[in-house]
Amino acid sequence: MGKRRNEDAQISKAEYARREAKPTQGGGAFPRADAATLAQRRLVSPFSSRDSRPLAREAYSTRIASLNKSFSTFAETALTSSPKEAIVDAARDYVRYAEQLEARFLPKRTEVLSFGSGDCGQLAHSSTLEDENDTVVAKPRVVKALTNKVVAQLSCGGLHNVAVTLDGVCFTWGCNDEGSLGREGDESLLYMPGAVSLPEKVTCVAAGGSQTFAVTLSGKVYGWGCYKDKEGKQWFDAPGTLAPKRKQTTPLLIPSLKNITNVATGAAFNAALTANGDCLTWGLGEVGQLGRSVRDVKVNDEYDLDSLRNDHLTPRKVDFGEKVKVLGCGAYHLLAATELGLLSCGLNNYGQLGDGSTTDRTRPVLVKGLEDRAIAELCGGEHHTLCLLGDGTVKAWGRADYGQLGAGRSEAEKAGSLRETPGDVPGLKDVKSIACGDHHNLALDAEGSVKAWGYGDMNALGLGRARDEFAPKLLEFGVPCTITQVAGGGQHSMVVAAVAD
User: Where are the compositionally biased (Basic and acidic residues) regions (predicted)?
Assistant: First the structure.
């Protein structure tokens, strides 16, 4: 069975150029409306859904009520101080957030499809992995084990996946070498989706390099797995008397995280967003990805356990200057959209921070050229970044040599090619969601169609051919379907399709 590769996050561009040409197998907003149109809009009712399932209705109701309160408070303040532009922006954001909540908590019957490399069970097509047809899947294939589950949200990690169903049950599958699944058993059971035992119903999940997190209906966060440092050592959250040097094989409550609405994960770090717009980070911050001051993990070549426990592994607030509206992570960099614009920090060896340099940043810096743009979604790969704007277009920057930026072959002619500031991804319009794998991307448009581009040797693009694509290409699903979610992992991908009753 394949194991996760260890890779130095700070490796130089020169070293990448000396490596093989391919990586090894391993690990929205709305258009502006005029004042008359806005005046006719009504707030979404917490009880307007047709879905009658209690948990989904309760989760949706709680979050829509909070959204309504926040919007009403802001509107009163903005209208008294005049800025018409601000209220228009807020209304556009409100509608986008309301749609996202409905899509997350009130989906129709679903099917999950997976494709790419599945030699560690991450595709969930076989409990034995004896047939190569189940471990190398070139086109999207239905995950039969999830056919009777209504999947509300799905997240891909390096070699594992996590999903939450409409009734609040968390499922995991794939590689469990680092405890990433939060459950134990024979490999044949781990290769297929299995429920994780949690004390509360779950509304949101996230899978990182080797770590997994679940957010509950009450805003608590449970985590399991581990963070692997540059030497391959395993670490995890250590509240109380727990030792930080370990892997966590069962769900652990992270007591300092409360009132959380979303968690984003990188290769070995995490970011959580609270209901009031604060961002907290934790994990391993060896290259500035935590966005705050931390001591080195080593002193005189020995691990500093006090630094690891208190600076790195304990969630702490990041000062972005304003409340965070949209949060995202790359493998080794953090992304956050605020009223000030889009900010980033962390590893920058391929320009993935978008600030016009290749200098690592330990504190958030502004991404160039997006100061006045409405941002709907953020995500990053190992060395590149995608940003979905409110008008349905996509910007990309960072490493380009496998086609990650989708701008054509000319921008990816040699190893180490990069772009230090955001540029357009041609061929995309009316995009409603984006996803990054390590070196590939997926974009979902308003019609439910999906386009993929980037590194394709392991079939993670789902196009039926094992080759890189330097511009977005349309996926074919064989039968008519409407895709509602996209997710990218190390070298595999998954999508969720809405199915009519």
Answer: 1-22
The answer to whether 405 touches 354, Cβ cutoff 8 Å, is no
User: What's the CATH code of the domain at 360?
Assistant: 2.130.10.30
In a domain, 223, yes or no: yes
- Same domain membership, residue 175 and residue 77: no
- On whether both 94 and 118 belong to a single domain, the answer is no
pLDDT band at 8 (very low <50, low <70, confident <90, very high): very low
DSSP secondary structure of 382-444: SSEEEEEETTS-EEEEEE-TTSTT-S-GGGGSSTT-EEEEEEE-TT--SEEEEEE-SSEEEEE
Q: Does 159 fall in a domain?
A: yes
Q: How confident is the model at residue 39 (pLDDT cuts 50, 70, 90)?
A: very low
Smallest Cα–Cα separation from 46: which of 63, 61, 66? 61
Mean pLDDT lowest among 67-71, 266-270, 278-282? 67-71
Residue 303, beta-bridge partner list: 298
Three-state secondary structure of 235-298? ECCCCCCCCCCCCEEEEEECCCCCCEEEEEECCCEEEEEECCCCEEEEECCCCCCCCCCCCCCE
Question: To 10 degrees, the CA torsion angle through 307, 312, 314, 315?
Answer: 150
Predicted confidence (pLDDT) per residue in 60-90, tens digit: 677 777 777 767 766 666 666 655 556 666 6
Contact 124, 194 (CB under 8 A): no
Helix (H) or strand (E) holding 227: strand 227-228
Q: Give the separation between CA 361 and CA 204, rounded to whole angstroms.
A: 29
**What integer pLDDT is reported at residue 16 of this predicted model?**
38
* Angle, CA of 5, 452 and 100, to the nearest 5°: 95
Bigger pLDDT: 40 or 103? 103
- Residue 267 burial by CB count (10 A; 0-12/13-18/19+): exposed, middle or buried? buried
State how far the Cα of 369 lies from the Cα of 389, in Å rounded to an integer: 12
**CA distance to 45, 107, 324, per residue, from 457 (Å):** 47, 33, 36
pTM above 0.85, yes or no: no
- Scanning 111-262, the segments in alpha helix (DSSP H) are 132-135, 187-190
Domain count for the chain: 2
d(CA 258, CA 68): 21
Give me the phi and psi of 191, to 5 degrees please.
-75, -15
Domain interval for residue 85: 40-106
In which order are the strands placed within the sheet that holds 248-253?
Answer: 202-207, 211-216, 221-225, 248-253
Position 430 in a domain: yes
More confident site: 285 or 40:
285
The gap from C-alpha 296 to its chain's centroid, in whole angstroms, comes to 27
Q: Which of 250, 237, 178 is nearest to 209 (CA)?
A: 178
